[in-house]
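Most newcomers find our protein records easier to grasp once they have seen one. Read left to right, the backbone structure tokens trace the chain's path through space. Once this layout is familiar, the rest of the handout is easier to follow. The record below serves as our worked example for the rest of this section:


***
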Amino acid sequence: MEQITLTYTEAIMYLALIGIVIGILLGLIPLILGIRKKKRQYGIYGFIASIVGGAISPILAVIVVAIFTWLILRKTDDKEPGDVVINESPVDVKIENSENR
């Protein structure tokens, strides 16, 4: 049996390819969730970030998937962050101009 030899660049290339495959498989989670929850933009960004993170390190791909899954599944209100509702039932207020009397 012959001994297999790899150079450093070949080893890094193979590890990056394995990481990209892991990133693609894990990136399907936020992609599918984003499409189902009507947050397609987060899903696509999560998929791409998972592939890039997987190329760097498969553990980074897991972290990216967790973050984007949280972003997709978190509950958001329809109101702006600065809006505060004090009273749900409005009161009809009439303003009189004292100069027109």
